[in-house]
UniProtKB/TrEMBL annotation:
Pfam families: Peripla_BP_2 (PF01497). InterPro entries: ABC_Transporter_SBP, ABC_transptr_periplasmic_BD. Residues 33-62 are annotated as: Disordered. This is Hemin ABC transporter substrate-binding protein. It comes from the Bacteria. Transmembrane segments: none annotated. Residues 50-62 have a biased composition (Basic and acidic residues). Residues 64-320 form the Fe/B12 periplasmic-binding domain.
Amino acid sequence: MMSMVNDMTRKGLIWSACLVLLGAGMLGCDKSAPASEKGVEQGAEASAEAAKENPVEEPAEKQRIVSLGGTVTEIVYALGAGDAVVAVDKSSVYPEATEELRTLDLFRTVSAEAVLSHEPTLVVATDAANPDGAFERIEKAGVKVLRLTADETVDAAKARISKLGEALGKEGAAKELLATLDAELAEAKSVAEACDKPAKALFMYARGRGTTFVAGKDTSASRMIELAGATHVPGNIEGFKPMTAEAVLEANPDTVLMTGSGLKSMGGVEGLRGVKGLSETAAVEEGRVVTMGDLELLGFGPRTGQAAAKLAKKLCLDEAQASNAAE
C-alpha cells in the first residue's frame, strides 16, 4: 500500500512540475502547444512590434467636436476630422459640409448651454471667442476646451494647424497641410518677384452702402496684399476705419480688393461707380476690382497660401487679364 501511495505521489509531483513548466511558457512533458497556437502567439508579437514602429493616430471620429469660428472649423475639416464635428457657429461657412451644422450663434456670443446641448467631448475656438465665462462653464461640465491664437499672420496659421493636429490625433495630416501651405506661399513669392508692375491695392470691407470700411496697416487684408507682393494703401491708418471719399482719393488705388459677399452687398462693380470718391479712382473707372471668398482671403487658415498665390497673379498689373475683374 505504501509503495502504491509513493508511486502516486511521485506521479503527482511529476505532473505538477509539468503544469508549472507549461504555465511558465516552457515546453516539456508529453504535451505540446498546438502549431496553430504558436502561430497566433508569433503573429501577435509581430503585430505589437509593427505597432511600435508605426503608431496609428487615434481617430478623431471617437470625439464629438463643437467648433466655434470659421478658421478653426476649416482647419478641423482640412485635417480630415469633419466626421467628428457635431455643431459649428454661424461664421463657419466653409466647407459646404458645415451648412447643416451651423446651429450655434457667432463665436463672439457663445452660449455654454447651447454648446453643451450637443454633448461635445471637445470644444475648439480662438481667443477671440467670447465670453470667457461661457468657456469656464463648459470646462466645469467636464468638457475639454482648446483655445487657439486668433492672430492673423502666417505663423499663427501654422500654430493653429499644428495644435489642432495634436488635439485631434491628426499629426500626420497636419504636417502635410503645413507642407502644402509652405509650397503655396513659395509660389506666391515667386509670382510676386517676377511681377514688374504690382498693384497699389485698397481693401474695402462692405456690408451694404451704410457699412463700408477701408483696411489700414496690420490687418488681415493688408498682410494678404503684402504676401501677394502688392502695395497696400492707405498706409497711414491702422485697423479698419470708416471709408470716406477723401481717404479713398488720397490713397488713389489702381485696384480695389473686396470679398465676394461685400461686392454683392454694394450692387457689384456698377454699384461702386455710384460711391463718391471711389467712383473717381482708376480702379473703379477701369473695372479693376478683385474679389475672393471671406475666409479664403481673411481667415489665415489652411487656404492662406492658396489665396496668396491666387492674389499675387490678380494683383500683378503687367499680367492683368479678364480674371482680374470681379468674379
